[in-house]
Amino acid sequence: MGEASQGNPGREALSLVVSARTQLDEETVTRQSANMHMIPTTPEMRRKFSTLRKGDVVQISGFLVDISNEEGFSWLTSRVRTDSGRGACEVILIESVKILGR
Question: What is the pTM (predicted TM-score) of this model?
């Protein structure tokens, strides 16, 4: 249904194509979708993420974060559910991930 575009971190956008077979309109799909960028806090967390597959049901706990460095790079996380397009993604510092179903 959606696909992330390639580009610079923080500049990705989610493109949606709503099928005529669904009763959902594009606004509803956009409001209920999220383009999340995950930052694992440990090597173990990174390994756990590498085992995730399409269709897995997961529970993720963490914090929304903004990223910046001394060279002037910044990547701000979205803090609202009503935005869309470039800059509407969430950047999450992951504390735990649990696979609930496959």
Answer: 0.66
